[in-house]
Amino acid sequence: MMQNQLSHIHSKAFQGSELALTTVDLSFNKLHRLPLEALQKLRHLQWLSLHSNDIDEWPSLPFKPNLHSVYLGDNRIAYLADGAFSNLRNLTFLSLDQNCLVEIERHAFPPSLQTLSLSNNLLLQIPIAALQNLRNLSWLQLGGNLFDQLPRPFRLPVKHLHKLDLSHNLLKVIPPIFKNDTEIIIKNLHLEFNYINTLERGAFKGLVLERLSLSNNRLSTIPDGAFDGLQENLKALDLSHNLLETFPKALKDLTVLSHLYLRGNAIKELDQYDLNECRYELEVLDLSGNRLKRVPREALLLTQRISRLSLQDNSISSISSNDFSVWGQSLTALNLANNALKHIAADAFLGTIKLRELRLSYNGLLSLNPAVFKPIRSTLEVLEIGNFNVPALDILQGMEKVKWLQMDNNNLRKLSSKSLEGMPSLIHCDLEGNKLQSVPLGLFRNSVHIRLNSIVLANNEIETIETDTFHKLPFLTNIVLFGNRLKILRTQSFRDMPILNTVILAKNEIFHIEKATFSNLKSVTNIFLQENNLTEFSFDVFHQVGDAKNQVFLNLSNNKIEQLIKIHEYKDSDVYIKARSLDLSNNFILHMDGNFLRPVGSTLHYLILSSNRITTIDSSTFLQAPNLQVLHLDGNRLTNLPNGVFQNCLMLQIIHISHNNISTVFSGAFRNLSSLRILDLSYNNIKTLPEDVFIGTSLERLNLSNNNIFHAPIHTLAHTRSTLRYLDLSQNRIATIPTNGLNHLHNLLSLNLSSNKLTSLSEDAFGKLVYLLYLDLSHNTLWRLDDEPFKALVSLQTLLLRDTSLPHVPNFPLPSLRVLDLSNNLLCNISDLSFSSVKELRHLDLSHNYLSEIPTHVWSSISRLTTLDISHNPIQTLSMNHFKKLERLRELDLRGLDLKYLDTRILYNLRFLTTFKTSTYAGLRSFRLQNLLSKSCSLRRVLVEVEETNLSHQLQFTFGTKLRELTITGRNLQYILPDAFQGLRTHELVLRITGTSISRLPKGFLKYLADIRYLTLDVRGNYLTTMDEEVLSPASKFRSEILTTQHISGGVLLEDNPWVCGCSLVWLGGWIRRWMRETLRVQMLHFDGFLYAQNLARRTICTMPGTNVTVALVDLDPSDFGCKQGSENNASAMTSFRDVYFWLLKTASILMTQWCYTYYYVVNSYDSLRTS
Asked: How far apart are CA 477 and CA 69, in angstroms?
């Protein structure tokens, strides 16, 4: 039951399953309270998830369930009283992450708890008293709170913890906090992402630790004795991303250390005896991202067990003959990527007899002796040598055990049929981003490459693929030919590969595909042919493709297809392709013959014909697709829907026919489509619908918005009375809702009547809509509105009345109302009784009215309010007590007021405030945001509308450490000085500058953002035309001289600016390309993520001077403008857009998923901002 819109669970919802249910998942819904009546009947319930709802209280349970695990993360719970969970005597797992917890009473938890998560709340101190009874505790997560110090002594309820997480807090000093007379075993202690600058001597005495993380802090020195007590038990230590300039001498005492991470510091060298004490145990050493100029051989010489060493992202210029001798005998993985290597001695790897992984990509090697790899040919399994400046083919001979080969962006122009013949173990072959014009026959041999799983040839210049290029490779799963210059696909180019799953041929120049090009591919599920030059298409290009188990997703979108050619001599016994989904969107199709779909009709479930030129469809169009379930016809040129047009598609569930020019819908168009649930007819020219058009359907969602409907189709909708849940009639010309006209739609949950011609509502307009949850009446001229029409809406939770010309607020009799939008009206004041009947209200929008003062007199009626928008009202005064009764407020918008006086203490009692929007109020004397927000430590999102032309002092030292998103906007703003962000203290931030008049960002823009570990810079929607290279230069004194993009790990978003192409922007295209490969760093991206990401890569465009021609910024090349070869080209060795695209395919899918999610979140936040 997860990911629905559930706001209420009926007491009898689980009737009949009371004795059977053991697991209930209600996560990602809109529940406001625990559904006690429904749950108390589930006698055997053991697992319950209420994650990501709107629950703000947890009641003491009047029954004793048998629950073992409860998930309550991402809700709004602020307090836990005594006995909150005491009835759950078998509870072993409890998650309360991402709530608003500020107080936990002593007896809130049962002693049975083994795992307790209180991360990302607002706790000011560790709730020691509440933990003392937890004698079975094993996992305790307290990260992401507001602890600035640890209790002394730190009394834990148990003597053994598997994990204690104190990360993402405000800790600065770690003193000795555990008693020396007791010994506490903690397997994993997490202190990362704090602000720790001091470890006192004996800080960890009294502890037995196995793994300790202190990464992403402010440690510049570590005193001797800091790790006293850990000498004989600490096995893993993470000190990455601190401020260490030398190897900490305190580490010399750690004799059993096996994993040491020092990534991202400023260490220049290691002394001879730095690793001496742990020489017998050290196995993993990460020194990447430091300032090493040579391999620290002297220190490594004493070690005896190192198996994995990372020296990536340093400044090492050469590898000598003895760098890995003696000590390198145990080495299995070595990373030297992204250095400044110019030379590797021929016998450099002579002593690395066990080396299995070697990464050398992105160096500046001018020459490479093939003999370098001779000592490791018999052991090497992973070889990454991308972006070399020298030919790399010679080194591959004799590498019989290499499974993973990455040779991208090496300027390779030609391969021979014997180039890979000595690599029989090859599983993944990546030759992306070279300049290959052909793939020689015999390069991939089924007699040699019997394990080959993935072939990546994207972004080359390949023009043809011969018939037997990939013939009968037994384990080949993926072929990626994206972004080449293929024009014709020959017969049987892809044949006889028994487990082939995905073929990506998108973004080529294919204009013709011969018959049976794809043949005997029973396991294929994805064929991507979008963004080519096809003008016609027939299913005869396939023969025996897919089967009943592996049905194909076929994408032919964004071609130039005009004709869909049917197979004339088709027999039912013929098997062309078992297609489940066919995407033909964004082509030039005028008509589709009914017999075209015959070869796929029995398996086709999804058909996408959006954005074509189809003018007519009839009963024969889909005759051969009886199993069709989803149909998209939006964005065509249809003028009518005739009778029986879908009569053979009885399985149809979803139909989208929006954005056409339909004026007539015949009565038999949808009749008896018993499976039809969702129908979108928006953006057409419909005036009326036949009364019987929906007879026999099961419509749940109907969208009729943006048509020319004058009268609500009451009688037409009567036939959907038992099924219709969501109805959208917005953007029409409806002037009245007849009395009792909607009564028959008694199951309706959502009704949108916005942007019509309504001037009043009859008393019984919504008479029997007792289950209605959402009602939008915005953008109608409702001069007079009283409470009568709303009396029956006992379940209504959201009421939108934006721009309805309301002069006053009626007393809405809506006991369940939680969201009320009264913005853009004529309100001058609000009466005492206006909100007296909406005590459950949580979100109130009063913006863009004529209120002259804060309506504090109504706060007592709606004291549970969490969101308040009073922006753009003529309010002149904000006093200390104006929000005193709104202690639960989480979001507040104070922009655009006519302030003459503001008491900076107005927010002091708003402990839960996470989102705040304000103007800078340039005319208000002595106004500083720092004073206003000094107590708002819970803020995560802030929007500042700047009224001045310059931004400098206004934001300095203003925000707390929980800030994650800062938006700067305001059309008056023309200049930002680097010191504007002085005092920002957070580990992760999206910095968004949008809707300003800024045409250029200053050099040294990141000067005060050096401490932000995960920075995303969003400068979309301004007037930027160019950008200096120094704008994105690293601010850190340790990294400024090193070419890198990792200091902006979330990337730079640049769309919606008037960029002008030229030499001054070439560096930026190179910077983006480097960021994609250096920082994004995801390997083997899944195909859908890859295709999504490559579209994002081309969103930012610039205009060629003096023309209307636009070019993707990442596609800029110095040769296009006759630019001198300078630093802008050094930003990336890849100078063609091809390098951008397929770098995305080489990237770890976990990181890519996270990046896509973050990018999606940032993009949608930006879109929401533009809309508002």
From this structure: 40
